[in-house]
Automatic annotation (TrEMBL):
It comes from the Bacteria. GO terms for molecular function: blue light photoreceptor activity; FAD binding. This is Sensors of blue-light using FAD. The lineage of its organism: Bacteria, Pseudomonadati, Pseudomonadota, Alphaproteobacteria, Rhodobacterales. Transmembrane segments: none annotated. InterPro entries: Acylphosphatase-like_dom_sf (IPR036046), BLUF_domain (IPR007024). Residues 1-92 form the BLUF domain. Pfam families: BLUF.
Length: 139
């Protein structure tokens, strides 16, 4: 099992039809390719963690890196993982509702900037957002 995580700056308006279409298309494509993960939007920040077959994720990472629907893509980490963390989520998605990624970095690890973020930070934060979403606490 392979994973990669990144953050970027979205170019699509929050909640726009274009954003909704992108999410719907990604859910279908990820399901076909056995990719799972979670996408979080907080204003001008996108944060995503994806996991699945190595070849498919490397191809997806390369497409994401040049996709014009966002910019300033920063890969937080990639590599092998022993298990899935987002089983059943071809692409979970939520927006900021409870806390922020920056606050999480500061509160949990004393980090003061996105430049200090790692893939593990992203996965832990998104796992929490995933749980909030399941409980109806996030939109």
């Amino acid at each position: 099992m392979f994973y990669f995580s990144y953050h970027s700056r979205p170019c699509l308006r929050p909640g726009s039809l274009e954003e909704q279409d992108l999410i719907a298309q990604a859910r279908i494509a990820n399901g076909v390719c056995d990719i799972t993960g979670f996408l979080y939007r907080e204003g001008d920040l996108l944060l995503q963690y994806l996991e699945g077959p190595r070849a498919e994720l490397i191809e997806l990472r390369n497409r994401i890196s040049v996709d014009s629907r966002h910019n300033a893509v920063v890969i937080l980490g990639q590599g092998l993982t022993s298990r899935r963390f987002f089983t059943g989520w071809p692409l979970g998605f939520c927006t900021a509702a409870v806390g922020t990624f920056g606050r999480f970095l500061g509160d949990a690890w004393g980090k003061t900037s996105l430049t200090e973020a790692t893939a593990q930070d992203a996965r832990l934060f998104l796992d929490g957002m995933c749980q909030r979403f399941d409980l109806g606490l996030a939109s």
